[in-house]
């Protein structure tokens, strides 16, 4: 019984998929669409555009790196099999929050 469980765990770990170059480009493009909104809001509020771009870049890279490490080491091992559902729920939640609150 234990051997069957361990074998299933090993098979589940082997199904780890890496993001392809094509997928990374598409994901990067779609996520960067958010920058259009940041640019429009920055110009409306007359913010320093170079400061906004710099801070957006720094936080984007830093949070992506942190999220990657969390996913690979901490969270990924615990709830990795539910990653599609969780990521979709988080994106929907962020959309709802952005509709409800103005920052």
Short description:
The chain has helices at residues 2-14, 21-32, 34-44, 49-79, 83-100. With 103 residues, the protein is mainly alpha-helical.
Please give the count of helices.
5
Strand composition percent: under 5%
Measured as a percent range, the helix fraction is over 70%
Number of strands: 0
H-E string: HHHHH
Main beta sheet: strand number and arrangement?
Answer: none
Q: Round the Cα radius of gyration to an integer and report it.
A: 19 Å
What integer is the average pLDDT?
A: 78
Shape: elongated
Q: Which regions contain 5 or more consecutive residues with pLDDT less than 50?
A: none
Structural class call reads: mainly alpha
How many angstroms separate the termini? 54 Å
Descriptive labels:
103 residues; mainly alpha; 5 helices; 83% helix; 0% strand
Please provide a written account of the structure.
The chain is mainly α and 103 residues long. 83% of the residues lie in helices and 0% in strands. It contains 5 helices and no strands. Helix 3 (34-44) runs antiparallel to helix 4. It is elongated. The N and C termini lie far apart (54 Å).
Provide the fold topology.
Blueprint: H1 2-14, H2 21-32, H3 34-44, H4 49-79, H5 83-100
């Amino acid at each position: 019984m234990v051997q069957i469980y361990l074998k299933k765990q090993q098979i589940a770990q082997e199904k780890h998929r890496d993001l392809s170059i094509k997928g990374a480009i598409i994901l990067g493009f779609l996520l960067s669409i958010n920058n259009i909104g940041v640019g429009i809001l920055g110009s409306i509020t007359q913010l320093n555009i170079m400061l906004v771009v710099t801070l957006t870049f720094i936080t984007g890279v830093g949070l992506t790196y942190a999220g990657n490490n969390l996913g690979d080491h901490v969270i990924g091992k615990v709830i990795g099999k539910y990653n599609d559902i969780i990521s979709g729920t988080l994106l929907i939640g962020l959309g709802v929050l952005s509709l409800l609150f103005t920052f």
